[in-house]
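TASK: fixed-backbone design
INPUT:
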């Protein structure tokens, strides 16, 4: 218990189940939630046969990388959940930093939560949620990190940790992620710690002040990346005298 009376989050609050193969660690977590699991459960797999990224895209999931999903049940009031992807990105960045050697290319976060090394994507994060029949809300955080394998035809330039002289195994990387996520979720404090999280996110962000294009479901918008607001929305300066807040989209630099 913290001095302010709130319950602290610690490593002992989380469980981990390691699988050899599954269709999707996110799907596995959702199935556990529907079956009544209480949450704070990590599921990892050496290989996924049906891994997916944002907007239903295929996530290539061969052995050699880290595929992990965290099941959270009622992690925060709904109005405070929008900042969780930023907290997740901070935790993943912290974990990867531990296994990169000194002098590696810059490790940064691309809004909202892709992790880049030298402006090349090495990690994707997919957050999904579902209201369960018993009224609880299940939120699943899926994390795929390229440790030694990369997709052949990516939408973005990609890289893997091996290409940056990291000798960490997926298991070693997960141990750092397990610890970092507990630390960051404790600071996030069910969304009450958003100010601290957004400050940490801004410190590791990629491309603030640069020209970007944001692909939305129905159109593309270009402008200058003016950073994020205190709720984690992307702030796009379109050059028309106003700043446009964007809640979701794919960001491209240049």
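OUTPUT:
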């Amino acid at each position: 218990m913290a001095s302010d009376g709130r319950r602290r989050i610690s490593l002992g609050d989380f469980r981990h189940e390691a699988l050899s193969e599954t269709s999707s660690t996110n799907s596995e977590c959702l199935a556990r939630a529907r079956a009544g699991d209480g949450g704070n459960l990590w599921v990892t797999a050496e290989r996924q046969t049906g891994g997916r990224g944002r907007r239903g895209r295929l996530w290539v999931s061969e052995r050699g990388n880290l595929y992990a999903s965290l099941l959270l049940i009622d992690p925060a009031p709904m109005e405070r959940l929008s900042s969780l992807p930023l907290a997740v990105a901070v935790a993943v960045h912290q974990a990867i930093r531990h296994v990169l050697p000194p002098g590696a290319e810059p490790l940064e976060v691309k809004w909202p939560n892709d992790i880049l090394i030298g402006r090349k994507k090495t990690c994707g994060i997919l957050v999904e949620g579902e209201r369960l029949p018993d009224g609880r809300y299940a939120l699943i955080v899926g994390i795929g990190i390229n440790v030694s394998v990369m997709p052949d035809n990516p939408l973005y330039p990609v890289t893997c940790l091996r290409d940056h002289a990291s000798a960490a195994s997926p298991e070693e990387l997960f141990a750092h992620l397990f610890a970092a996520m507990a630390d960051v979720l404790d600071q996030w404090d069910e969304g009450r710690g958003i100010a601290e999280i957004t400050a940490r996110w801004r410190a590791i962000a990629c491309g603030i002040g640069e020209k970007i294009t944001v692909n939305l479901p129905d159109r593309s918008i270009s402008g200058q990346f003016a950073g994020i607001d205190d709720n984690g929305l992307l702030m796009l300066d379109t050059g028309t005298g106003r700043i446009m807040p964007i809640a979701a989209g794919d960001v491209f630099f240049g």
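COMMENT: The radius of gyration is 18 Å.
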